Amino acid sequence: MVYPSYTWGLGRQYKQQDGLLINYTYLRFHQQLLKRISRGLFTGIGYHLDYHAHITTGRDKPLLKDYAQYSYGTSGPSSVSSGVSLNLLFDTRTNSLNPWDGRYLALQFRFNPTFLGNNHQWKSVYLDVRKYIRFERGTHRQNMLAVWGYLWTVLDKQVPYLDLPSLGWEEHNRSGRGFDQSRYRGRTLLYTEAEFRKDITDNGFLGLVLFANANTVSGPRSILLIHWNPAVGGGIRIKMNERSATNIGLNYARSLHHVGVNLTLGEVF
Predict the structure, then answer these.
(1) Dist. CA 185–CA 167, nearest whole Å
(2) CB atoms within 10 A of CB 13
(3) Distance (Å, whole) CA 111 – CA 117
(4) What is the pTM of this model?
């Protein structure tokens, strides 16, 4: 990925209008090998590489290190995070593109040692939980509530800035509708979202969603579980493929300082 994108330091360090535009090239390789233990339960190992290169902030702009007041992964033109992971997955969804029911839980412990290319050794934990509740069983009409939450935290201080937990940068880059990507970043990020989904037409070709989400992050001027950042929105769904139940989704969302419109293939979660 080749980016210009904004960053806002840690926690609530800066207001929306004070974001710093940074340029960088990002190579991301995350791969897991899982073995099924029982119905819906998997465990295994993984390898993860996050390489940010050519990190610049432009002429007449503060350096990323000075702006974020953070020393790791901000001093040079690049940063590397290379690590292995232990993974536990429980997934009883019948369709990952458009879940109608079931549960999803993913737990990952990631270890980034210096012998794999990291400047400093660091560890992280990621927990992702989802639940799908149907209000009409025995029918082919969608009328349900989907609930999602994840906790992402690092266990050491010397973590590269661009690899710290950040909104919109979880494993599938789907969180934070109504916010700019990277709007909140810190050592710990907690995210929650609920979405009501209902068919408009009897054949399921058209549908609607209403959703709300909120996040809390640790950092300057932001206390985890005390300061929350909410957003709300809605969207239209068009059934692209009846056999796979794949939807095209158009979403509108807004938070206190941002309005966003995005197009998705499949449900957000």
Answers:
(1) 7
(2) 20
(3) 12
(4) 0.95
DSSP string of 105-160? EEEEEEEE-GGGT-SS-EEEEEEEEEEEEESS-SSSS-EEEEEEEEEEEESSS---
Q: With contact defined as beta carbons under 8 Å apart, do 3 and 27 qualify? A: no
Q: Which domains does the chain have, with CATH numbers?
A: 2-265 (2.40.160.50)
Is the distance from CB of 7 to CB of 183 less than 8 angstroms? Answer: no
Is residue 104 a contact partner of residue 128, using CB atoms and an 8 Å limit?
yes
* pLDDT tens digits, 185-238: 999 999 999 999 999 998 889 999 999 999 999 999 999 999 999 999 999 999
User: Which residues in 213-223 are b (16+ Cβ under 10 Å) and which e?
Assistant: bbbbbbbeebe
Residue type for position 219: G
